Hints:
Blueprint: H1 7-25, E1 30-34, H2 39-52, E2 57-61, H3 70-80, E3 84-86, H4 90-102, H5 109-130, E4 133-135, H6 141-145, H7 167-176, H8 181-184, H9 197-201, H10 205-214, H11 220-233
Parallel strand pairs: 1-2, 1-4, 2-3
Amino acid sequence: MMYQFDAVKTKDEAVRWIRTWFERNGKDCNAVIGISGGKDSSIVAALCVEALGKERVIGVLMPNGEQKDIDSAKLLVSYLGIPYYICNIKKSVDGVLEALEKSGIAVTKQTRINLPPRIRMSTLYAVSQSNNGRVANTCNLSEDWVGYSTRYGDAAGDFSPLGKLTVQEVKAIGKTLGLPQELVEKVPSDGLTDRTDEDNLGFTYAALDRYIREGVCEDEAVKERIDRLHRINEFKLKPIPCFEYLCEEQK
């Protein structure tokens, strides 16, 4: 039997889950969301508005210098009518990189890629602590499955409405929420080059989602790549390992 997804039912369940989570983990707190203008942050924000009311949802736009698609982020906060801040992180990013280089550290390409998401997460928590907030994680299952996220960057947060939903499922929910199509269907990119996420991954999200939900991947090379990425990045989804110390009385 082909896998079926009920977007309306899942959307309603996600809204109830958010509402319950806040009742238990931050009654009267605000949801603080990093708004990129992409589908994930747009849909998380819309779910939180439905769950908590727009007065309890705070958007944070965090360009790193100039952001070509910042108008998409502004469209989202305007459409939802939520309060928002714009915090440019460029000086913070440049300051850390300069300090590393002055210390004699050869900064790698991967360091330059992952530093901005981590500074954005620090910024979100600063905004959250100053506004009685809880920080939303906006990652989806597809990205997490192959490690396409930054640990302690966009992969962090206090609650995760989309963490168990694939890209196709997230898009379907976005449509039921009535969000502008340009936000739901916006092609995700790395923000650094003209390459899309799918260009960098080497396969489409549609192929990945089908493999996750149905276990079917007709391209053996793609299947092997997905399996490898999942295997080497699975640690990102697990709690930090702890040495299990037992005192003498416990032994």
